Every structure is written in structure tokens, then in C-alpha cells.
Amino acid sequence: MKTILCYGDSNTWGHNPDGTGRYPKHIRWPSVLQNELGQGFEVVPEGLNGRTTVWDDPVRGEHRNGKAYLLPCLHTHKPLDLVILFLGSNDLKSRFSVTSNEIAQSVEMLVNIIKKSETGPNLGSPEVMVIIPPPILIPENAPTISYLAPELEKAIEKSKHFSEQYTMVLSGQCHLLDSSKYISTSKIDGMHLDPESHAVLGKEVAAYIKKHIFTE
After folding, report:
1. Euclidean distance between CA atoms 138 and 143, whole angstroms
2. In whole angstroms, what is the distance from residue 156 CA to residue 92 CA?
3. Cα(129)–Cα(83) distance, rounded to whole angstroms?
4. pLDDT tens digits along 121-140
5. Of 213, 159, 201, 162, the residue nearest 30 (C-alpha)
6. Quick one: which of 45, 70, 131, 149 has the fewest CB in 10 Å?
7. What is d(CA 12, CA 131) in angstroms, rounded to the nearest whole number?
8. Which pLDDT tens digit goes with each residue over 16-48?
9. Count of alpha carbons within 13 Å of 13, Cβ hemisphere only?
10. How many domains does the chain have?
11. 68 in helix, strand or coil?
């Protein structure tokens, strides 16, 4: 049995872009991944709304800091064969004032924590896979929210560079899957995934794992 930890934010938790709450379990991409991999794998979802890479959130709480909870989480679920990181979008919030390159470097910090964690089989290192988040979009209702547009436009521009910056910073250090090649965020809120994107992402992650990580 191989254990896979999916460590992410609201798009791993399963936030519905229409604001009605959480998708049913079978819709969320970690569940799709579990179904695609089948027997012999256990997929553990660890998604938290608002989770950042390494930043304490002064508005939504320090517990949103992905770095702070990562090591306890790894030790909770060890031994782990693979850890999948799907983070970075919440770092785009204006209160953090970071560039796309700095966000990629923050993900790199998390990758290094995982590699040094001794939470893999026989106290080794788990495999690490980073899903590069898709760019965010201007939501359909943005014109009705006067204060949102200026800051959102900055975040959108930064998110367009995720693919380039994550690849530049992380190539050779971990497995990389650029989600923007397969999915996009919902037009409803511009940030979260619709059910179709969850399904596609889960299947693409499974295909990558079978081809590049656990090939037997």
C-alpha cells in the first residue's frame, strides 16, 4: 500500500465557486485521484481554505500558514510515499505583497521541508510533486465589486507567471505538473475549480504518477 498526501488549499478542500460550501467528496480531485489509482494506494486529502505557503495571515489567522502545519501533518500520516503540494494562489492576496517568483521560492521551502522530514518509508524522503496552480480569472461579478478590481488585476497578472516561475525555481528538485495545461479556474469566482476541472486534474495527476513515479 502506497500512501499519498495531498497538501493544499481550498481547491484541495473542495470549495464550490458559487459560495454554497463544499463539493461532495466524490467530486474533489483527491477522490478522483484515489479512484483512478485504485487498490494499492491510499490518498490522504489535507486541504484548508485560505492556506498560504509560508505566510501568517493577519486577517484569517495564523493557522493558514502552510509551512507551520506541514511537518506535523507529515508525521501524522507517515510513512508517506508521495506528497503532493498544490499551493500558491492565496499568496496572491495584496496583504502579502509578494511576487510570483517569491511564491515559487516559498513552495521550494516546503519541498525542502518534505525532503528532510524523514517521513518516507524507512525514515527516508517521500517523493514530492508540485502542482502549479492555474492562473486566476476576473470573476463574472467583478464589475459590481468596485474595490475588488484593482487588486484583483494585480493578482491575475502575477498568477500568469506561475508556470514560468515555478518551473524555473523547482525544476530538478521535484516532480512538476502544470495544471494550466489541463484546467482553468471557474468563471464564477475566478479562483476555484468547477467539477469538470476537479475530474480532469485528478485524472492527470494519476496519469503522471503511473508514468513517472510509481511505474510498476
Report:
1. 9
2. 8
3. 6
4. 999 999 999 999 999 987 76
5. 201
6. 149
7. 11
8. 998 899 999 999 999 999 999 999 999 999 999
9. 14
10. 1
11. helix
Q: How far is CA 4 from the centre of its chain?
A: 14
Helices (H), the chain: 10-13, 29-37, 66-77, 100-115, 148-159, 162-170, 195-208
In the block, which residue shows the cell 512538476? 176
Beta-ladder partners of 176: 130
For residues 68 and 59, what is the distance between their CA atoms, to the nearest angstrom? 17
C-alpha cell read off for 60: 484569517
Q: Which grid cell is 206?
A: 494519476
C-alpha cell at 129: 510533486
Question: How many residues make up the chain in this entry?
Answer: 216
Specify the CATH number for the domain of residue 110: 3.40.50.1110
**What type of residue is 102?**
E
Task: Specify whether the CB–CB gap between 83 and 129 falls below 8 A.
Answer: yes
Asked if 81 and 2 touch (Cβ cutoff 8 Å), the reply is yes
